[in-house]
Specification:
504 residues; alpha+beta; 10-stranded mixed beta sheet; 8-stranded mixed beta sheet
């Protein structure tokens, strides 16, 4: 029997963020996730930390303001995982008028108290500049800044931070149900791989199961289901790099939505996203031919050299659990979150998390713990606002300066590979590289800068167990690692045997 103050169900960004915040306030925390950490919605986003420019059209000023503020918090606390990115919006005359875009960008610049990022501006789309690769009729546009983020690694960093503060992280552990017993929750868990059963006794349950939030409620007989969620699939495609330059394109579409073209992993562009309501089980969703066609048509409206489905190198899809506010158009359904606390019996509380977005996870966690404050009077004050995530306390004034230090001290690692390791781990990459004076010291090479020394670290500290965990969530090496390298990795992991991350 595991004794905890809180049992958090769900290892996505909201669950990991709540677990870290709660552990840092002195609560004992257990988190269970039926798959790998960040294996569902939280690793299938557009990988943006942004205010949500288009949400202004729906008058969601509170959400945009909060997101813009959080954008700057994450820039400060996770400079290795979150970086500024310029966005260029070509103006399509037949869609939103120039004055409307200017007004929206003015609000976007000022609503969140921007300090770290440049403001927006109108610009000419020069064929040798920001207009490169676009059709010649697109001559004017706008630019503004948001941020790019490695979504899966942001989740891992929060889970690691929670574990460092004493939380127990149980990946690949399914929540089977809970009932009130002797004034506490008695929850049943099952190891998804071995079938081993375990129990957790806790005062509070936090249901952060994302698309499966209602299934969790259904497994708690004393819970009262009040909220509705709308499951919306968002899909992306990755193609060979469309344009040079470290900036993204935001393209207006004639259905009122926008589609992004985002630079990704040096050689690719990610294009997304779609909004498709689903009613089936969200497990294992994938992109449809219709979605591929939609994304290709949306970007080909602007590109001088159109893309086609046969250029696609990778696709991914995730299901967003949106709070159902009654709107029929999925793209207009709120991206805000709702928190619902229930007390089925004295001494027991259930908190259900509906909706949310990657950018606002930290504030969602703070609001969640505010909801639980009366049940846990021993909790200390909020603390995450200026607390770097693991790897985020760089021993240099900027990420670029940190990488320059690494190049001086570990010049034997190819610069591109060293940069990627630094992006993944920040200050913690020193642990991976410590004592190494040659590539041979880093062990077996699997391809794309991935060595055994880093694989060992991922298994021992980040709950990685399979090649997929490592190639697609802990890194994005899966895009380029050859089949031989993947086979070497699978054999290496098998030779290591089962690994449980520390405090996991």
């Amino acid at each position: 029997m595991i004794e905890s103050d809180l049992l958090v169900i769900g290892g996505g960004i909201n669950g990991a963020g709540i677990a870290r915040d709660a552990a840092g306030r002195g609560l004992s925390v257990t988190l269970c996730e039926k798959g790998d950490i960040a294996s569902a919605t939280s690793s299938a986003s557009s990988k943006l930390i942004h205010g949500g420019l288009r949400y202004l059209e729906s008058y969601e000023f509170r959400l945009v303001r909060e997101a813009l503020k959080e954008r700057e918090v994450l820039l400060e606390n996770a400079p290795h995982l979150v970086r500024p990115m310029r966005f260029v919006m070509p103006h399509a005359r037949e869609l939103r008028p120039m004055w409307m875009i200017r007004a929206g960008l003015f609000l976007y610049d000022h609503l969140g108290g921007r300090h770290l990022l440049p403001g927006s501006a109108a610009l000419k789309l020069d064929p040798d500049g920001y207009g490169a690769g676009l059709k010649p009729e697109f001559t004017r546009g706008f630019t503004y800044f948001d941020c790019w983020a490695d979504d899966a690694r942001l989740v891992i960093a929060n889970a690691r931070g929670a574990a460092d503060l004493g939380a127990r992280i149980l990946s690949r552990t399914r929540f089977d149900g809970a009932a009130v017993e002797d004034g506490r929750w008695r929850a049943r868990l099952t190891d998804s791989e071995t079938g081993q059963n375990m129990e957790v006794r806790a005062r509070g349950l936090v249901n952060a199961a994302g698309p499966w939030v209602n299934q969790v409620i259904g497994n708690v007989p004393s819970a009262n289901r009040k909220m509705r969620i709308l499951l919306v699939k968002g899909s992306h495609i990755a193609v060979p790099r469309i344009h040079e330059g470290d900036y993204a394109l935001i393209l207006q579409n004639d259905d009122g939505r926008v589609v992004f073209i985002i630079p990704f992993e040096d050689e690719y562009s990610v294009i997304g996203t779609t909004d498709v309501p689903i009613e089936d089980d969200p497990e294992g969703v994938s992109i449809s031919d219709d979605e591929i066609g939609y994304l290709c048509r949306a970007v080909n409206r602007y590109l001088a050299d159109p893309i086609s489905p046969d250029q696609i190198q990778w696709t991914y899809a995730g299901v967003r659990p949106l709070y159902d506010d009654g709107k029929t158009d999925p793209s207009k359904v709120t991206r805000d979150y709702e928190l619902e606390a229930q007390s089925p019996a004295p001494g027991c509380v259930l908190l259900n998390v509906f909706g949310g977005k990657l950018t606002t996870y930290r504030r969602l966690a703070e609001h969640a713990l505010e909801k639980l404050a009366d049940d846990f009077p021993q909790m200390t004050a909020p603390w995450t606002h200026d607390a770097p995530l693991p790897g985020g306390a760089l021993p240099a004034e900027s990420f670029d300066a940190f990488v320059a230090q690494l190049k001086r001290s570990h010049g034997f690692v190819p610069p591109r590979h060293l940069h990627h390791i630094a992006r993944r781990h920040g200050a913690n990459c020193e642990t991976i590289l410590d004592g190494a004076t040659s590539l041979d010291d880093l062990g077996t090479y699997f391809g794309e800068g991935l060595y055994a020394r880093e694989v060992d670290y991922l298994c021992e500290n980040e709950w990685a167990r399979t090649a997929e965990d490592i190639l697609w969530r802990r890194t994005k090496c899966g895009l380029d690692v050859e089949s031989e390298g993947r086979e070497r990795l699978e054999n290496y992991l098998q030779s290591r045997g089962p690994e449980v991350a520390r405090t996991g």
